[in-house]
Amino acid sequence: MVERADDRLVRLLGIVAYLDDAGPVGVDELARQFGVSTERIRQDIDALWVSGTPGYMPDDLIDFDAFSLEEGLVTLTQSRGLTRPLRLGTREAVALVAALRAMHTTPAVQADAERTAVVGSALAKLTAATGEAAHAVDVRLGGEGDSRVLGVLTRAVAAGRRVRLRYVDAADAVSERDVDPVRLVTQDDATYLVGWCYRAAGRRTFRVDRVLEAVATDLDVAEHDLDPDVDVFAQVAADVGQSPRVATLRLASPARWVAEEVPVEGVRDLPDGSFEVRLRVTNPAWLRRLLLTNAPDVLAVEPPDVAADVAAAARAALAADADEGTDSTPLG
Amino acid sequence: MAGDHAAGEPPTRPDERLLNLVIALVNTSAAMTKQQVRSGVHGYGAAPSTEAFERMFERDKDTLRALGVPIVTVEGSGHSDEVGYRIDNDAYALPPVDLTPAELGVVALAAQLWSDKTLRTDMSRAMTKLAAAGAADAAGDAVAGLTPRLRAAGDAYGPLLEAVSERRVVTFRYRAANTGEVRTRTVEPWRIAARGGGWYVVGHDREREATRVFRLSRIDGRVRVGAEAGAYTIPDRVDVDAALGARVGAERTALLAVAPERAPVLRARAVGPGPGVPRAPRGRDVVAVPFRSMTAIADEVAGYGAAVLVVEPAELRSEVRRRLAAAARLDGGAGETGERHG
C-alpha cells in the first residue's frame, strides 16, 4: 500500500525529534513507538540519511551512526534543527479535544469515578497544549441511559465478571440472560454491550437502554472465541449474514440513515433521489418495527409477504386506536 | 553517508521533497525566496518549468500548513524586494504534553471516535506527533472494554471547521425539514455540534438576523467559505443545547395506553400515571412517559403497532397515525384508511 506523502513526512519529522530526545533506540522499539513495521523504519532512516540543508554536503545532512545501526540500534548524530516535535494542526487538535470531551460525558465513563478522572486529566493536558481552537466542535455521545445499569456493566467489563441481564429484544419479549461482557460500545446516542450470551450460545450485542436490570455475579468470564476488537456493526452484519431471508426496501431520500446505520447487503441509488437497500432479516419483528417507524419514507417493500405483514400490523393498530379514541379523550 | 544531490536529477518522492523543504526553512537564517528554494532545495530542481515549480511549491506550502507547520512570509528587504519564506520556530513545536500511559490510552481511544476518512487520517497523524513527543506505551486498562464511535459528519465538516476557526462567513444550499424547499443560506458559523446521532452547525443566519441551527445532512452540495477572515465575532458563550433545544423542544409527557405485559422499555421510563389520568382503555395500562423529541417518541410508539396507543397529546397521536397510515398502504392499498400524507 502506498502511504500518503504527508503521513510519512509527519513520521519522518517525528522520528528525528523523538531520537534527539530519547537517545539511541532499537529499530524494533522505534517501530512500536510509531506503529509501523521495522521495514518502514529502515526505509525512513534511509530517506532521512540523504536529507538536509541546501548544499547537501556530508555536514549538511541528517546523520546516524552506521555501525550501531548494523546492530539494530538507531543512533542520531545530526538532527539539522528538527529537535522538537511538531505541534498539532488545528483540525487535529479540534478533533482530538472534541473526542475527549465527548468521551468524558458518556454514561459509560461517568459511571466510573476512576475513568472519569483519567479522561478528565488527558483532556485538560491536551486542551492546554492546543489552545483556543478547542471549542469549534462540540460533541455529545450516548443517551441518558440508566446509570445504575451502566455502572454495573462498566465494572463487570473491567473486572471480567459474568452478568445476569433482564433484556427486552426487538420483538418486545423479556428474557433473562447470562452474559460474559466483552466491551461497551457507544455509537452516537446509544450504548451497546457486546458479549457472549449463554442463552444464545454465541456472541450477541445488547442495547443498554433495553436492559431492564443488570446484576453482576461472582463468576469470572470464561474464554470464548471472540475477537475483542470486533466492530459492533461488522458484528451485527455478520450475525445477520447467517440468515437466509432477504428483503428489499425502496426508500425516499430522508431515510438515507437506514443505509448508514442498519447492516445492509447493498445500496442502489435511483435517478429520482430515492434508493434501494437489500437487507438480511434475522428477526421479522425488528423489520416490522423498522417499517412501521419509517413508513412515510418507504416507497416499496419486497417480498410481498413482508409488506402484507407490516400493513396488517398497521391496520390493526389504527383500528385499535380508533376504538380507544372514542372512549378515552376526544381526538384532537 | 552522503548521497548525490545534483539539482534536476531523478524526481524525488514528494514526502522527501517536503522533508528537505522543512529542513531548509527551519535552518535558514532570514528567509528563502522562491528562487532560492527552486535552485537550492532538493527535489524542486526536477520541475520542468517555472509554472510547474510554482504549482509544486504552492501545493507543498498548503500541505505543510495543513500539517501544522507554521510557514511565514517575510517581506523582501535590502537588496531584494522578493517575498521570502521561513518556518516560525517558536510556533513549530508542540508544547510539552507529558501524558501518562493511562492518559495516552484514553487519547488513543478517543482518536477512534471518528468515522470520516479525513478525520481518521488527521487522528493517526496526531498520534504520530504525540509519539514523537516521547509519550510512552499506551495503557488501555483505564478504559478497557470501551469503544466510542460517532456517525460520519460528511463533507460539510471540513469547510465549516475552517470557517469557524478563521471566522469566515459560509453560504450553502439548505433543504428545509418541513417543506423540502432548498434555499441558499448565508451564515456566520459559531460551533459544529453532534447530538443524538445528528451533526449540526450553530450560527448567525444573516438573512433571518437570528441564531439558527442547521443539520449537516440537509446541506445540499458544497459549503462555500468566504474570502475574508475574522469577518465576525463568535459570542463568548454559545449554548449548543439551548440552540438545539428550540428544535428538540422542552420536556413533555405522553400518556400511552399499553397492552398487558408489552413494551417493558417504555414502562421502565414511565414516571407513573399522574393526577387526572383518563381511565385506562379496555384491558390496557396507562403510563406517563416523558419525551423531548416529537419525532423520536412518534417513531418509537409507531414501532409497537397495536401494543401501544397514544392517549395524549393529540399531536403525538396524529404523528403516530400518519406513520401507521403509510404502513397500512405498503401492501398496495388494500387497507386504505382514507387518510392521506399529512
UniProtKB/TrEMBL annotation, chain A:
Question: What region holds the WCX domain?
Answer: 246-318
Quote the Pfam families the UniProt record gives: HTH_PafC, WCX, WYL
The source's superkingdom equals: Bacteria
Position of the signal peptide: none
> Which residues are in the PafC HTH domain?
7-127
The record's section on InterPro entries has:
CBASS_pafABC_assoc_protein, PafC-like, PafC_HTH, WCX_dom, WH-like_DNA-bd_sf, WYL_dom
- Tell me which UniProt keywords the record has, alphabetically: Proteasome
* Record bears the keyword Transferase: no
One GO cellular component, as annotated = proteasome complex
Which residue range or ranges hold the WYL domain? 149-214
* PANTHER family, sorted: PROTEIN PAFC, PTHR34580
Indicate what this protein is called per its UniProt record: Proteasome accessory factor C
Q: Which organism is it from?
A: Isoptericola halotolerans
UniProtKB/TrEMBL annotation, chain B:
Question: Is this entry keyworded Lipid biosynthesis?
Answer: no
Q: Which residues form the WCX domain?
A: 253-328
Residues forming the WYL domain are: 158-220
Name the InterPro entries for this protein. CBASS_pafABC_assoc_protein (IPR051534), WCX_dom (IPR057727), WYL_dom (IPR026881)
Task: Please provide, in alphabetical order, the Gene Ontology terms of the cellular component aspect for this entry.
Answer: proteasome complex
- Keyword set, alphabetical order: Proteasome
Name the domain of life. Answer: Bacteria
Has the keyword Ribosomal protein been applied to this entry? no
- Tell me which PROSITE patterns the record gives: WYL
Pfam families the UniProt entry points to: WCX, WYL
Protein known as: Proteasome accessory factor B
